[in-house]
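Write out this protein's structure.
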Amino acid sequence: MRRRHNHEVTTNGVPRGFIDREELTPKEKEYFDWVNPEDSFGFFRFYGEVYHLSQFERISGAIPGWDGFHPTSISTGVLIKIKDEQIIVGSYQAGGRALPPQEKTPKGVWLN
């Protein structure tokens, strides 16, 4: 028997552009010191936080219409959908109302 998951997703559905590493603050650059300095593509902002594509795991149909996720707690996280070199971002909550991420996941806990 296949278990059905109930995820509530919140998004404005508007594609946004990626930002270059050079647009990050010195503190943000320090936080992302694990990203290859030559890899300046793949950063974006969501609710005031900076994310990089390498923090996201592909979800292959687990949440229809989304390409990847990054958990921010055991039942919440950030969703991404790549579209024409832009990104659509949303938040999810399993079994309830989706809320924006409140804090960054501690450094070194990425799902790659």
